[in-house]
Automatic annotation (TrEMBL):
It comes from the Eukaryota. Keywords: Glycosyltransferase, Golgi apparatus, Signal-anchor, Transferase, Transmembrane. One of its GO terms (cellular component) is Golgi membrane. PANTHER family: EXOSTOSIN FAMILY PROTEIN, EXOSTOSIN HEPARAN SULFATE GLYCOSYLTRANSFERASE -RELATED. This is Exostosin GT47 domain-containing protein.
Length: 333
């Protein structure tokens, strides 16, 4: 990929929805990718005839912030905006019409992105945080985008790492809002029920979310239940803080699964098995846990943003997944 792949980035489209990378918060993945892709000299070509892939640089976060009318309770105008954008691209360039967009890709982290892109962008490779197979995510075409909570745009890897095992006294930790139906079940069974299980709702605010981060750094397992949607920034946070992620989200497609063996460094618990959560974790032998935590440290490099891309980092991994799926779909035609 590094030697051959060339990407054409469309210059069309107006800010803030297009070409406006937002680098903070839970939707930061799409912004960091946009920033690094548009500035990239190794992969980007200005000659569209040489391109293998075409990037549609829109921000699903800015689309929602700019156009969504809370009183309307409808995403129709957001979808229409993207449809109009594609019509403009197709009318101005000949590349879209060759494949109906199959060699085009987008990177979008907002929860609504799957529904917003299901019309004119349906044949594109969609890199989505909300990677839900029950909501139209297509294995082999679409790409699971890691949801990364970036708190410092100048230093996105700040606070990297965690405590050694001897200082990880908590068996399992979760704290967060009661989004969706899974988290209330988690708290119903485990909040204030067992000293080994630190399961909370929203924690009191602290500067830089220090309390939350310290719990992750000092726990053996970090519980990552789905919210309203299947994805959660806790999965990447756990890896960043060297805590073995426990994913409770039945229809979630984990990022980079085509090259990473997730079961070697994460635990998957079915939503129906929440009452058995502690017994599942306690039943994992210490040797197996140590292997998983070692592999968490090993895969960590693949989930980190850097102000300039570093080999095998998250930018390269996302691009590789997109390239991989394009090669796969092109061969199966």
């Amino acid at each position: 990929m590094e030697k051959t792949l060339k990407v054409y980035v469309y210059r069309e489209g107006s800010k803030p929805i297009m070409h406006s990378p937002y680098l903070l918060g839970i939707y930061a993945s799409e912004g960091w990718f946009m920033r690094l892709m548009e500035a990239n000299k190794a992969f980007v070509t200005k000659d569209a005839k040489k391109a293998h892939l075409f990037y549609l640089p829109f921000s699903s976060r800015m689309l929602e912030e700019t156009l969504y009318d809370q009183n309307s309770h409808s995403h129709r105008n957001l979808m229409q905006y993207l449809n109009n954008y594609v019509d403009m691209i197709a009318g101005k360039h000949r590349f879209w019409n060759r494949t109906e967009g199959a060699d085009h890709f987008l990177v979008a982290c907002h929860d609504w992105a799957p529904s917003e892109t299901k019309q004119r962008m349906a044949k594109c490779i969609r890199s989505l945080c909300n990677a839900d197979v029950k909501e139209g995510f297509m294995l082999g075409k679409d790409v699971s985008l890691p949801e990364t909570y970036v708190r410092n745009a100048q230093n996105p890897t700040r606070d990297l790492g965690g405590k050694p095992l001897s200082r990880r006294k908590t068996l399992a930790f979760f704290a967060g809002g009661m989004h969706g139906f899974v988290r209330p079940i988690l708290l119903q069974h485990w909040e204030n029920k067992d000293p080994d299980m630190k399961i909370f709702g929203m924690m009191p605010k602290s500067k830089g979310n220090r309390n939350y981060i310290q719990y992750m750094k000092s726990s053996r397992y970090c519980i990552c239940p789905k919210g309203y949607e299947v994805n959660s920034p806790r999965v990447v946070e756990a890896i960043v803080y060297e805590c073995v992620p426990v994913i409770i989200s039945d229809n979630f497609v984990p990022p980079f699964f085509e090259v990473l063996n997730w079961e070697s460094f994460a635990v998957f618990v079915l939503e129906k098995d929440i009452p058995n959560l502690k017994s599942i974790l306690v039943s994992i032998p210490k040797k197996r846990y140590l292997q998983m935590q070692m592999r968490v440290k090993k895969v960590q490099q693949h989930f980190l943003w850097h102000r300039s891309p570093v080999k095998y980092d998250i930018f390269h991994m996302i691009l590789h997944s997109i390239w991989y799926n394009r090669v796969f779909t092109a061969r199966t035609r």
